[in-house]
Design goal:
By secondary structure, the protein is mainly beta. The protein has 3 helices and 28 strands. It has a single domain, classed as Porin, CATH 2.40.160.
């Protein structure tokens, strides 16, 4: 049976206006972990900034990396949200399985231009990265209490980051990079999407509805890294960092589908927030044998940019979608203890890490959607790093410096592992009426994430 377009539009307007949530509004939480070493320290890394993931955490740190350095990794994230309605109905949502797919990933390469014979370039470092700083996936049962609000949402968006850094003064480096937010077919469905089930009376009951969209938008990031104090060997023992990531506006073009059949073009605008970070790192112990670092970062995330996600239909109609999110302050604390000289493992370094992150909720009750586990959040992190330098060997058989071709031999090969548990404070949503009344109730969320990064320096 073919569904008349006029009934589709009536249904879409009724549901979206009543529910106050857009197809692509849900999955824009910030993904903190963009490198396993940093993740193991609660992502308090802007002022340490000493591996290729600094391209994301603080572009200024690139100026202090020597040679060519690479890093790539993946995060496996999962967990559940348990919902209990005021009448006692319970249901559980997850990340489309034991692990969200596609999971957040990252890849970076940096190259210091020292040695090219041009004095101006000797202090310049260039790099490029790809990661997923925003986005996730959330699934709820098709027969759940808010199936007419959401059953599935995803935002498989990634960020391409060409970046440069310059050592302006012996103790001051600066960096600037572009952020190109976009979608691609090889990453998930290659589009933002939201699915829900049609209620009776407006469209055929039980119909699968989907609204999707994709687009691209530019942004930028700038950072500064200042060394306030050095030890007798000239190593930094007190660093201060400031990083700014700009707002970016994505115009998403897509379609409304019923049971997989397109019935109308649809567009919306998604504004990604600006982020301002300040950080300080201190090394109470730092010598040739061991290091101990503690770091504090404070972030302001400008979620106030998400004020509405109005949907524009091809026939000229506009469906208002107020959001009214609020800006948040996040606190990130991390520590690392590193052994650089290990008697039984010459050429190896081992680092143990830990961290804590506190993140405020950004979504108010009256625009809350089950697609976002928005609540005050506590994250506990731990991690380990295993790095083998050129003079070390794997199992005493394979020299770590043998990786590479010709004269381009590896100076360091490393693996970083991290594990994080996300404890969301229980949140009770109330005050919604009409079709949105189904989202009222108690939400309990616990998530987890394990990450792996491989690092090679030449």
């Amino acid at each position: 049976m073919q569904v008349p377009v006029r009934w589709v539009l009536v249904f879409l307007a009724f549901v979206l206006i009543s529910c106050n949530s857009s197809s692509v509004s849900a999955q824009v939480p910030r993904v903190y972990g963009q490198g396993s070493a940093a993740s193991g320290m609660g992502n308090a890394f802007a002022a340490q900034a000493d591996d290729p993931s600094t391209l994301h955490y603080n572009p200024a740190g690139m100026a202090r990396l020597r040679g060519v350095q690479t890093m790539a990794g993946l995060t496996f994230a999962g967990g559940t949200t348990d919902f209990t309605s005021p009448t006692g109905v319970s249901v559980t949502g997850d990340h489309n399985g034991a692990f969200a797919w596609p999971g957040p990933g990252h890849a970076y390469i940096t190259a210091n231009l020292q040695g090219l014979g041009v004095s101006l370039l000797e202090k310049l470092t260039v790099g490029v990265g790809v990661n997923t700083p925003f986005g996730s996936v959330m699934r709820w049962p098709d027969d759940g209490p808010f199936r007419t609000v959401t059953t599935f949402t995803a935002l498989p968006m990634f960020d391409i980051k060409p970046t440069v850094a310059y050592q302006l003064l012996p103790n001051l480096s600066i960096g600037v990079g572009a952020d190109i937010y976009t979608f691609a077919s090889f990453f998930g469905e290659g589009q933002a999407e939201r699915q829900l089930i049609s209620p009776s009376g407006l469209a055929p009951a039980g119909s699968q509805l989907e609204v999707n969209g994709k687009g691209a938008a530019p942004g930028f990031n700038v950072g500064a890294l200042f060394t306030a104090l050095r030890n007798g060997e000239g190593q930094p023992v007190a660093n201060v960092a400031v990083v700014y990531r700009s707002q970016a506006t994505l115009h998403l073009d897509g379609a409304l589908l019923i049971n997989g059949v397109k019935v109308q073009d649809a567009t919306t605008t998604l504004v990604l927030p600006q982020v301002i970070t300040g950080g300080i790192a201190l090394w109470p112990v730092r010598n040739t044998e061991r290091e101990w670092k503690v770091e504090l970062n404070v972030d302001y995330v400008g979620w106030t940019s998400v004020q509405n996600l109005d949907i524009h239909l091809a026939n000229g109609k506009v469906i208002p979608q107020p959001q009214n999110w609020t800006g948040t302050y996040d606190i990130l604390i991390g520590t690392e203890y590193r052994w650089m000289k290990i008697g039984r493992l010459p050429g190896w370094e081992i680092a143990l890490r830990g961290g804590y992150t506190y993140q405020q909720a950004q979504v108010p009750d009256l625009t809350f959607t089950p697609a976002v586990p928005s609540s005050d959040l506590h994250v506990m992190s731990t991690g380990i790093g295993l790095h083998c330098r050129r003079n070390g060997s794997f199992l005493g058989l394979i020299p770590c410096g043998s990786l590479g071709v010709g004269s381009a031999k590896a100076r360091l090969v490393g693996v970083d592992l991290s594990y994080q548990t996300f404890f969301y404070e229980p949140r009770t949503i109330s005050g919604n009426t009409g079709l949105r009344a189904v989202v009222n109730g108690l939400y309990n969320t616990t998530l987890y994430a394990g990450a792996l990064s491989v690092r090679v320096s030449f």
